[in-house]
Amino acid sequence: MKFYTIGVYNSTEQEFFNKLIDNNIDTFCDIRQRRGVRGAKYAFVNSNRLQQRLDELNIKYIHFINLAPTKEIRELQKKVDKQAGVLKQDRDKLGKIFTIAYEDRILSNYDFNDFINNLVEVKANKVVLFCVEEKPEACHRSIVSKKLEKLGYKIKHL
């Protein structure tokens, strides 16, 4: 099994789905808590539209809400972004406080054996982890990726 990550900010709908197609992604793991994006620009990744398009592409969709940061953890990052005068869409990396809180409150309790078993059950081969931020370092998917790398999996950021 090979893992990839993808964000949506600064991508068009065509670019986003072409990345999945070009890399032969067969399983799409949505690791967001809220599966919607405000505004028309990225409406194609709102849950229903996204799942419909993935189904047309023969890509399995799984929502792993237990890998999503809680509202409280996201608020920690919002404060850091606000202090730095940075919009979420323009963030280059996560704050240390977010990373520590996410690792402590989410990853330390997460069963990665169960995660992998779920993917094996659906015969996943090329798996993408999805959240909205463009840069993986600006998103919790980079923290999940590091954990998967420690477990021996290779990660490619699309």
What does this structure look like?
With 158 residues, this protein is of the alpha/beta class. It has a single domain, classed as Cobalt-precorrin-4 Transmethylase, domain 1, CATH 3.40.1010. The chain is 41% helix and 13% strand. The protein has helices at residues 13-22, 47-56, 71-84, 96-105, 112-121, 141-150; strands at 2-6, 27-30, 60-63, 126-130, 155-157. Helix 2 (47-56) links the parallel strand 2 and strand 3 (60-63). Helix 3 (71-84) runs antiparallel to helix 4. The longest helix has 14 residues, at 71-84. The model has no long low-confidence stretch (mean pLDDT 93).
Q: What is the CATH topology assignment?
A: Cobalt-precorrin-4 Transmethylase, domain 1
CATH architecture assignment name: 3-Layer(aba) Sandwich
Gap between N and C termini: 16 Å
Helix content: 40-55%
Number of strands: 5
Overall number of structural domains = 1
In this structure, how is the largest beta sheet organized? 5 strands, parallel
Mean pLDDT: 93
Q: Helical region count?
A: 6
Overall morphology: globular
CATH class: Alpha Beta
What is the string of SSEs from the N terminus onward? EHEHEHHHEHE
Structural class: alpha/beta
Bin the strand percentage.
5-15%
Q: Describe the strand arrangement of the main beta sheet, using strand numbers.
A: 3-2-4-1-5
Regions with pLDDT < 50 over 5+ consecutive residues?
none
Q: In angstroms, what is the radius of gyration?
A: 15 Å
